[in-house]
Amino acid sequence: MSDWLSNIPDAARAYLNGARLDEVECVISDLSGIARGKAMTASKFARQSQFYLPNSIFYQTITGGWSDDAAIDGFTEPDMEMRPDVSTASAAPWTADWTLQVIHDAYGRDGQPVPYAPRNVLKRVVGLFEARGWQPVVAPEMEFFLVARNTDPGQEIKAMTGRSGRPAAARQAYSVSAVDEFGPVIDDIYDFAEAQGFEIDGITQEGGAGQLEINLRHGDPIKLADEIFYFKRLIREAALRHDCFATFMAKPIEGEPGSSMHIHHSVLSAETGQNIFTGPDNGETPQFMHFIGGLQTYMPAATIMFAPYVNSFRRFVKDHAAPINLEWGRDNRTTAIRVPISDPQARRVENRIAGMDCNPYLGIAASLACGYLGMVEKITPREEFKGDAYDAEEDLPRGIYAALDEFAAAAPLRQVLGQDFCTVYAGVKAAEYDEFLQVISPWEREHLLLNV
Question: Do 28 and 37 contact (CB within 8 A), yes or no?
């Protein structure tokens, strides 16, 4: 590892620009997408090829609790070997010293990838595509809110105050003036992204008060998941510089639309580099329709990965910019599965179910897994939906328990994602819901305290 700096990406090298590197943050995503790991001096990092963390980081709930039931071999907390992927080295430009972040992969003591590490789950799914000569390509869209500082969980979340001195207004989708309200925060987002070597395809105002969307260029699923993992921290840090919070909650403000992570998919032939969704005559191929069929068939079982928390299901409200069923349509934003307008070689399928609160590795892995099963099993989708899909029947699971039941029953999906991962993930989600049930909400105090 002594010469590792010679192998880092150009953006990281340009960020250092000859400066002496002080610190390296060794990070890995847990099931919630939180960065776990440790920071160390650059000299220590250069002297080692790995470090160790207990496998219990993957049994941890979003509240910091633990799911003993998720532990496959008992809750003994054996160490995992963390190996750096130097190609992910990225600047941490908000720190006071010269710091790089490096994403690590988790391996067991037997040298095999830990099957419930989120990045390894995505690698497993991508590997299944590659084994069939397919190269999956994704393009994610990230929605989030900039909100006023909220230090009391008992208080409702409010929109941030823009540079005009007025709170951000809702229903200003695509307004350039609304984006300008957050100019200082966005400037820092652009600066941080440039320092980290990330290419932003565009920033737009969404329909919620203080809600923004960032589009990323299409590319390799693992690389894009790494970028979203980094981006969430980048955006939070930019917001903190300007006395506000960035939140990726699925539904942070009552009455406002939720925040999604739409995922666009296409699949290339590894041999020819051509989009297999488009035939020689520029028409739609059977694989294209089968991919849609796979999403329709398996997304109910994958919903727990697209909507991982109680709050996640608050997005799925009729006429609130999130789908409520699994219809598909061409250029129809009311459907869960949308085929955007594109040139034949850019033909793609958009999954509009995933929320921005999902782990990017797991959300992308689950979406690709559904499409993969559709192509392998040659699933024919339902007829294209014409018109307003909010008028169609709802067919998504309604809540955590229903979603976990669908997840448990989908044997083909569990096989693609890995049985060990599915066991651990379901255990953690069930434990989180049990924790939620111990909290008494303001709604219950208002309507039940004196009325029942």
Answer: yes
CB 144 within 8 A of CB 246: yes
Place of tokens 């590892």: 1
CATH number at residue 64: 3.10.20.70
Q: Are 112 and 101 in contact, with CB atoms under 8 Å apart?
A: no
Task: Please tell me whether residues 248 and 365 are part of one structural domain.
Answer: yes
SS (H, E, C) 263-320: EEEEEEECCCCCECCECCCCCECHHHHHHHHHHHHHHHHHHHHHCCCHHHHHHCCCCC
Task: Report H helices in 39-80.
Answer: 42-46
Asked whether the beta carbons of 247 and 147 are under 8 A apart, the reply is yes
| Full domain range(s) for residue 105 | 4-113
What would the DSSP string read from start to end of 379-447?
A: PPPPPPP-S-GGGSPP-S--SHHHHHHHHHH-HHHHHHH-HHHHHHHHHHHHHHHHHHTTPPPHHHHHH
* 396 contacts: CB under 8 Å, gap ≥ 6: 299, 300, 303, 316, 323, 324, 325, 326, 336, 353
Q: How confident is the model over 160-214, as pLDDT tens digits? A: 877 777 666 666 665 677 677 788 899 999 999 999 999 888 888 877 888 999 9
What mean pLDDT is predicted for residues 8-14?
95
Which has more pLDDT, 255 or 85? 85
Q: What CATH number is associated with residue 397? A: 3.30.590.10
Here the tokens at position 37 are 């790991």
Which of 48-52, 56-60, 73-77, 308-312 is the least confident region?
A: 73-77
CB 139 within 8 A of CB 338: no
Residue 309 lies in a domain: yes
Q: Give yes or no: residues 362 and 412 share one domain.
A: yes
| Contact criterion met (CB below 8 Å) for 374 and 277 | no
